[in-house]
Amino acid sequence: MVVCFHVCGDLHQDKYLGHAADSIERLMSFGDAGVPFFFVLSGFIITRVHLRDFNRPERLWDYAFKRAARIYPSYWIVFTLAYAAAWTSPTLRNTLPQDALTLIKSALLLPQDPALTGGTGAPVLFVAWTLQYEMMFYLTMGLAIIHQRLLWLPIGLFLLNQLGHVFGEGYLQTFFANQRIYLFGMGVLLALFSHHRLHLPMAYARGIAITGTIAFLALASLEIYSGATSDRSDHVLIFGVISTVLVLGLIRMEDAGWRLAPEHLLVRLGNASYVLYLIHVPVMSVLVKAATMLSNHVGQFGLLGASLSALISVMTCCVLALAFHSQIERPLLKRLSNRPVALAA
Fold this sequence. Notes:
By secondary structure, the protein is mainly alpha-helical. Helices cover 71% and strands 0% of the residues.
């Protein structure tokens, strides 16, 4: 969804296909709702996987290593390639961070002032702003591994920041006031609830999943019709609640015995989803420019040309993500998981 949202939004810019992409841009205007779904799912998965590590500080290093290994290596590879590619372009070179501190913060996925770093707080790969929240969530879970009562510290600071400016008046206040943080909490609560293993018949589990899917599509249709965006805080939270219901249904379906085959395309795309999220930004920027050059050469594209351009761009991103995951990310993660035992102690 997020890839389609960004591709169609880019094509719709005046410097690219402009009005030819009006319809597809409107059709995918809800695609940013993939972010709430991702935050809920991430909160659920991390909590469920590491719930047994709570109150076990000796597990902290192993937890930190696994989380860092999952996020940083692929991000650093894509970030470096995107940075190098942008550096070769005189136009894009000016958009790159020029000082070492900004680069270090970008590499570590630390929050930065959006006004100074391309409008999102994440230079080069603008989608990395979501990974900054992901890393903050990982740090929060790390506190629970030391002792779960420490969770009240970040929770209290977040809630106080909703009422006042605990972090001052700058970008940190805005960063920690983002209501998308509630979405991680929804995922955490879902993991705690599902931990009790309340088994449901397949029919009931499927009914919950279908209800979540219908609600998700209904809200998406409303946004398409009304022209509203998922940037609105109420829509973000509603999409979060709906995503929680959808994930609950899928969990219960798995508990009841439903599984997709490991080689199923959806499973493979799911395994490559992190890489897809990272690489689609630089890949689509090249393909959107290519579509515009072709349009200028053969004649202005209409709706069909814009739709084909979007489809080709999305499919290319998916194919490259699958290849990257298969040839680079998966072998790298396997090697890191087989690190010497001394490092895991």
